[in-house]
Every structure is written in structure tokens, then in C-alpha cells.
Specification:
By secondary structure, the protein is of the alpha+beta class. It has one domain: ADP-ribosylation fold (Alpha-Beta Barrel), CATH 3.20.170. The protein is 17% helix and 28% strand. The protein has 4 helices and 6 strands, in the order βαβαβαβββα. Strand 4 and strand 5 form a beta hairpin. The longest helix has 8 residues.
Length: 134
């Protein structure tokens, strides 16, 4: 499926608990990501709905903020671009029941591709609590 137009500036990975600080080169995959074979990501517009659907009972979430262009290049968690012969990293836009979402194949998230970790406390719904950059 085609990427949205315009392309987002950032993508986000939602975590139910704080990642290690400082971030390691490779963060452990969630059980869902392990089972599906890719890392689930959301645009700023998708994060509130995803948080309300999958993390409704959480009072605090942590978002890994990642520059879109960094993942589109195939940058792994260690900061290296994974190209041919290295198990190429690939960012794909795929249709899921609720829309078109970004999925990262063949790479990990970590200090080499995550630009910021944002902690957010829930006030009302996640939609009311989250204001993110597109």
C-alpha cells in the first residue's frame, strides 16, 4: 500500500513502560512484534486511537519518537543502515482494519534511530492527552 501524502515527519512506537535509559542499541521486541515479524508504528494522528484501543487501562505510556526519514533509509537500532547482503531493513505501509500503518521489517529500534523518548500521563482519554508532531 502507498505511504500517506504528505509523508509524516515522525513515527511513534507506543510502549506501556519506560524503556531502559540510556537507550541500548537494540530494544527488546514486544510479544506482538515478535509474533507478527515486524515492529508496529503509528503516525502522530494514529497514536491516540491506537493508545485508546490497546492501552486504555494504562495511566502512562512511553512513546519512541523516530524521524521518518531515518527509518525510510533502513537505519537499524545501532545507527547503521542495513542494505543488501545485511538482511535489508524496510519500512512498509500496510492496510490494517483501522487504516494504513507503518511496519518496520528487518531492523530494531534503539539509540541509533530513536530521536526521543516521550512519557505521557493520561488525562481523560488518550486522544485528549496526546499532542504530537505530524
Amino acid at each position: 500500500m502507498a505511504a500517506p501524502s504528505p509523508l509524516p515527519t515522525h513515527l511513534y512506537k507506543i510502549l506501556p513502560s519506560a524503556p531502559p535509559s540510556p537507550l541500548p542499541a537494540r530494544l527488546p521486541l514486544s510479544d506482538l512484534d515478535k509474533n507478527d515479524g515486524y515492529i508496529h508504528l503509528s503516525t502522530s494522528e494514529q497514536v491516540p486511537g491506537t493508545a485508546d484501543k490497546f492501552f486504555a487501562d494504562s495511566e502512562e505510556l512511553f512513546l519512541l519518537k523516530i524521524k521518518y526519514e531515518v527509518l525510510a533509509k533502513g537505519t537499524d537500532g545501532d545507527g547503521e543502515v542495513k542494505g543488501k547482503g545485511q538482511g535489508k531493513a524496510e519500512l512498509r505501509w500496510e492496510e490494517v482494519g483501522r487504516g494504513c500503518f507503518a511496519h518496520l521489517y528487518g531492523a530494531d529500534l534503539g539509540r541509533g534511530n530513536v530521536s526521543e523518548v516521550v512519557g505521557v500521563r493520561k488525562e481523560g482519554s488518550w486522544g485528549e492527552s496526546l499532542e504530537l508532531e505530524w
